[in-house]
Design brief:
With about 350 residues, the chain is α/β, with parallel strands linked by helices. Helices cover about 30% and strands about 25% of the residues. The model has no long low-confidence stretch (mean pLDDT about 95).
């Protein structure tokens, strides 16, 4: 089968940073399903792994987490899917990735593909939907349902993949006031179109901008990027006993900034359940099915930003380069094989 991989951690401008190659089709065992991959998307985690985790000498690592496709074969213990089912999922960071014609994944972290979306549109959703859902409801403890909530949710770096889903979930499923941050005009417009009540510029002092808006107190904060640059400023204007959640890897972070206000800190990693085979691992199957239903009912929409064409090394290198530039908006998707 065709696949795209790497053997060394190299700058994306290097020819061998990612390359096309042929490898054997994997065989499903246990609760694995084998998926004929039709579309994938590229996330910041792809670039981080490529730059930080070189495979053992002589081995080729396949990147890619988001995928949409058709179930091709199933392991002996599979009960949730059958060959021919259309599925979408975000995979496991411990296994070979989705940038391959066929991919193995545990059925417990796979959901039904939204019927109303194309393969490319659906590929934009899994990883960011899981991350945003778990961050909002499991970590920050927001209450689903449109009951009144007199708090503001601040989402920094909201025009990216996770933020694009988080804005929609918070606006459509909770009573929170949703305050996004973005620096470029096109990113600001994107956040407003997705449902943010207001947008401020995180490149300027945030406290003054928030005070001018006269919003409910910032009780929840979702820090999606550059947390080391923003967390102290956020701690200053957050309400006492609030909740601060983050998903990135800040070079510097001290909880002392939050101690006086008893603000709790929450880390979100959507790979935790699959990496540790937690007892509630199947929660991601149910979560993705819920997202699929919300899409098909028109409650939320895909966050596809750019379609970079067929799945190959050249196009994946372009996608990695854009993500590393920090100028991507929504999700970058690749579809089909050539």
């Amino acid at each position: 089968m065709k696949a795209v991989g790497y053997q060394q951690s190299l700058p994306i401008t290097e020819e061998r940073a990612l390359f096309d190659f042929e490898t054997a089709k994997p065989e499903p065992k246990g609760r694995d399903i084998r998926v004929a991959v039709k579309a994938v998307s590229v996330n910041p985690v792809d670039t981080k792994v490529r730059k930080r985790a070189a495979p053992p000498a002589g081995e080729t690592k396949i990147l890619g987490y988001d995928a949409v496709g058709l179930v091709d074969a199933v392991g002996p213990d599979v009960s949730l899917f059958k060959p021919g089912d259309e599925v979408f999922y975000a995979g496991s960071i411990l296994r070979q990735g989705t940038n391959a014609e066929f991919h193995l994944v545990d059925e417990r972290i796979v959901g039904r593909k939204p019927k109303s979306l194309s393969f490319a549109e659906a590929a934009a959703l899994p990883l960011t939907s899981i991350t945003a859902w778990e961050l909002l409801f499991d970590r920050l403890g927001a209450t689903p349902g449109k009951s009144l909530d007199d708090r503001t949710l601040l989402i920094t770096g909201a025009a990216g993949g996770v933020g694009s889903i988080l804005i929609q979930l918070a606006r459509r499923l909770t009573g929170l006031t949703v305050l996004a941050t973005a620096t470029r005009p096109e990113s600001r417009d994107w956040c407003l179109a997705l449902g943010a009540h207001a947008v401020i510029d995180h490149g300027k002092p945030m406290k003054e901008q928030i005070e001018a808006l006269k919003l409910p107190p910032v009780g929840l904060a979702a820090s999606l990027t550059h947390s080391d640059q923003h967390y102290k400023a956020i701690a200053e204007f957050m309400a006492p006993q609030g909740k601060f959640g983050l998903i990135d890897d800040p070079a510097e972070f001290s909880i002392a900034a939050f101690k006086g206000k008893a603000i709790s800190i929450h880390w979100e990693s959507m790979f935790t359940r699959s990496s540790f085979t937690t007892p509630d691992m199947i929660a991601q199957h149910h979560l993705l099915n819920d997202v699929s239903d919300l899409i098909d009912k028109g409650v939320i929409r895909t966050t596809l930003g750019d379609n970079y064409g067929t799945i190959n090394a050249a196009n994946l290198k372009r996608a990695h380069a854009l993500i590393e530039s920090n100028k991507s908006r929504g999700k970058i998707v690749l579809e089909g094989w050539s």
